[in-house]
Amino acid sequence: MNFAQATSPLLLGATLTLGACSLGPDFEAPRSTAPSAWPTLQDKAGPSQPEATPLQARWWEQFNDAQLSSLVQRAVERNLDLQVATARLMQSRAVRSSIASEQYPSVDLNGNYSRARNSEDGLNDPSGKNGKSAFNLWQGDFTAAWELDLWGRVRREVEAADASVEVAENDRQGVLLSLLAETAHDYIQLRAVQSTLAVIRENLDVSRHSLRLSQMRLNDGVATNLDVAQAKAQVASIEARLPTLEDRQAQLINALSLLLAEPPRSLQNELLQPAPMPQTAQRFAMGLPSELAERRPDIRQAQAQLHAATASIGVAKANFYPSIRLSGSAGFQSLQLSDFGNWSSRRFAIGPQLSLPIFEGGRLTGVLKLREAQQQEAAVQYQQVVLRAWHEIDDVLRLYNASQLRRDLLDEAVRQSRVALDTARNQYVEGAVDFLNVLTVQSALLANQEQWVESSAAVSLAMVGLYKSLGGGWQSFAPPAQASAELDRGQRSKHP
C-alpha cells in the first residue's frame, strides 16, 4: 500500500468532520426582562434616591473607612472559602481540557519485549520452533486514533464543559461577593456594638452622678433612702448591659479574624480601639437595570447551567448515531534484537472502526429524556433566580429608605430626651419632682440612644446589602483567569 492509499481514510474522515453537524438545540441566552428604570426612582418619598449611573466597583470605599478597606483587601487575599472556590474552578478547567482533547487524534509510542514458549499442540508458533523451545519477541509501534465527530457529540461535550467552567467561575465570584459583603457587615456591626458600649458608659457616668447627688441630698435630709436605692438599681442595671456587649464585640472580632484566615483574638489589638461607625451618602449609583444580569454571579451561573444542560441534549442525541474511529499503527517486530529496526521487520495496520447502537433496552432514550428534563429545570431555575434578584433589590431599597427615616426621627428623639433629662435633674434638685422622674427620663434617653445606634447601623448594613444584591465588587479583584496564581499566593501568604 502506498502513502496515498494509507492516508485516504484520514483525508476522508477530515472532510466528513468538517461537513458534520451538531445535533441538539443551539443555546440562546434568555432575553432580559429587566425594567427600564429602578422602581424607587419614581418614588420621591424616601430620604435618598438611587441614580442610574455606573455602579462603583469598589463600593466599600464610599464608607471612607481605611480600616474597612484594609480588612476587605486582606480577606480577599487570605480567605479560605475563596481559595476552595478557586481550587474548584481549577478542577473545572482541568476537566474541560480533558474533554477537549477528544477533538484531536491521540498518538502513542509503545515498546515491549517478551520471552515466551508456545504449546506444541497449539495453532501456531511464530518462532517456527513448534513449541519445542522458548523465543524472544521484540516489538515497537507508533499508534494513532481519531474519532470522527460526525454528529457533534464531542463538540457538544466541549460546549457543555465550557459552560461548566463558567458555572465554576461564577461560583467563585459569588463566594467573593459574599465575602466582601460579610466583611463589611461584620465590621459595621462591630463599630455599632462599640458605639453602643460608648452610649452605655456615658449613661453609666450620668447614673453614677445621679447616685452621688441622691446620697448628698440624703445626707442633707432632703431625700430618702428610696431615692438612693433607686439610683443604685439604675447604676447596676446599666452596668449589667456591658458584659453582653463586650462578649458580642469579641465575637465580631473573631468573625473578622476567621474571614481573614487568622487565629482567634489575632485582630483584637487592631480592632478593640473604638472608631466611628461607617456612614453612607444619601445619593448612590446603582447602574442600569439591564446590567444586572451581567453583574450578579448567581444569574450568570444560572445561565451557564442552562447552557450546559442544553448542550448535554446534543450529546444524548448523538449517542443514537454510529461512531466512526480511525486507527492505525506502524512499527517493527522481530525475534532477534539485531533484526529489530530492519526494513524487513516493519509492520503497519490501518482502518476504521464502526460502532452502531442497535438495542440498548431504552437506556439511550431514557438518558435523552433525562437531559431534556434537566434543561427544563435549568430554565425554570434561571427565571427563579432573576425574579428573586429583583425582589431582593426592591426589598433592600425599601429597607434602606425606612432605616434612614427611622434614624432621623430617633436623632430628634435623642435630642429631646437630653433636654428632658437636664430639665428633670434641675427640677429634682429644686425639689419640684421626685427622683423617679429623673430615672424615667434617663431610661428613655438610654433607650433612644441605643435605638439610634441600631438604626444608624441598619442604614449602613442596608447599603451593604444593596450592593451585594446588585452584584457589585467582585469585578475589582483578580479575574478567574488568574485563579491558579491567586490560589498559590493565598497558600503562601504569611500573616503579619
Automatic annotation (TrEMBL):
Question: Which GO cellular component term is one of those annotated?
Answer: cell outer membrane
Per UniProt, what is the membrane topology? Lipid-anchor
Q: Where is this region: Disordered?
A: 30-51, 110-130
Name the UniProt key words of this record, in alphabetical order.
Cell outer membrane, Lipoprotein, Membrane, Palmitate, Transmembrane, Transmembrane beta strand
Q: Gene3D superfamilies attached here?
A: Outer membrane efflux proteins (OEP)
Principal localization reads membrane
Q: Which GO terms describe its molecular function?
A: efflux transmembrane transporter activity
Q: Would I find Cell membrane among this entry's keywords?
A: no
Subcellular location, record wording = Cell outer membrane
Database matches in InterPro entries: MdtP/NodT-like, OMP_efflux
Family annotation (NCBIfam families): outer_NodT
Give the similarity note. Answer: Belongs to the outer membrane factor (OMF) (TC 1.B.17) family.
What is this protein's name? NodT family efflux transporter outer membrane factor (OMF) lipoprotein
* Native species: Pseudomonas putida
